[in-house]
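Support request from a user on the community tier.

User writes: "When I paste my structure tokens into the form, the page sometimes reloads and wipes my input. The last time it worked, I copied everything first. Here is what I submitted, just in case something in the input itself triggers the reload:"
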């Protein structure tokens, strides 16, 4: 099997310090958590950013401040920093995509509209085309966020239209309230829809994070963990950091005989030039 790429989703846009006091908000807090996750074995930092009061923002300036803080904290080339273009429910697409102008190596591309708790997260095909074209212009590899089977079909439409000309990497997100339930059966079904040669990561929400991660390790997939998806280490026990969740995946993967990819090895697997 390929070496395991671990993505650390360190803060998200929804979870707050009221949920877990260890959730980072400021650039300094986010950079420190990114370094802990990188040192623990994560090769990708999935990045949302906040205003200092914890409210989510897609401000390009705030993203730059956070990215610069991470780069200053981690010597060398460091991890792949993967900004989110999802933002928060209700943001305009122009606001969401602005971070791509900073030319990150990767960024997320949500592949369809979905129910998101009590809200609707809108990603129609015209919006997806605009995102994909912008990422081509800035030479950014999209991570294709898929919450439903139809989202993979949407990604393949973009591929057919030559709007995804490079390596295809999917993030299968299972367990969001209102979207596809988290189960091994649903993970297998989604993986079977992915075209040959593509790679995939699984993000299980809440208590589903760990069992889906273990299955992904054995299925030659990759794993995302962190406070965006899950704030607990075990039932009723808050995690001390996203890095603690990364450390557990590293330990389990090694026990199962699968080595962990460095950031440079992850770039090679994902064909990031």
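"...and here is what came back when it finally went through:"
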């Amino acid at each position: 099997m390929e070496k395991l790429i671990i993505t650390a989703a360190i803060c998200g846009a929804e979870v707050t310090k009221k949920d877990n006091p260890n959730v980072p908000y400021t650039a300094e807090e986010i950079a420190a958590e990114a370094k802990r996750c990188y040192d623990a074995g994560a090769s990708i930092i999935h990045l949302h950013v906040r205003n200092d009061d914890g409210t989510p923002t897609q401000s390009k300036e705030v993203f730059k401040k956070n990215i610069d803080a991470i780069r200053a904290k981690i010597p060398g080339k460091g991890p792949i920093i993967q900004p989110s273009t999802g933002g928060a429910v209700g943001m305009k697409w122009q606001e969401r995509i602005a971070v791509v102008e900073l030319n990150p190596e990767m960024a997320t591309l949500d592949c369809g509209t979905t129910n998101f708790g009590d809200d609707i997260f809108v990603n129609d095909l015209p919006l997806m085309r605009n995102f994909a074209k912008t990422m081509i212009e800035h030479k950014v590899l999209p991570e294709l966020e898929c919450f439903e089977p139809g989202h993979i079909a949407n990604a393949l439409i973009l591929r057919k239209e030559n709007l995804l000309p490079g390596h295809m990497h999917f993030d299968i997100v299972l367990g969001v309230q209102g979207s596809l339930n988290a189960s091994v059966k649903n993970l297998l079904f989604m993986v079977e829809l992915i075209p040959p040669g593509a790679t995939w990561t699984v993000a299980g929400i809440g208590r589903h994070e760990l069992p889906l991660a273990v299955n992904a390790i054995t299925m030659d997939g990759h794993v995302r963990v962190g406070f965006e998806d899950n704030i607990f280490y075990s039932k009723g026990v808050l995690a001390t950091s996203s890095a603690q969740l990364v450390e557990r995946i590293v330990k389990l993967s090694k026990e199962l005989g699968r080595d962990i990819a460095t950031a440079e090895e992850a770039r090679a697997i994902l064909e990031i030039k």
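Agent notes: The reload is a front-end session timeout and is unrelated to the input. The domain at 6-269 is CATH 3.20.20.70 (TIM Barrel). The CA atoms of residues 35 and 74 lie 6 Å apart. Escalated to web team.
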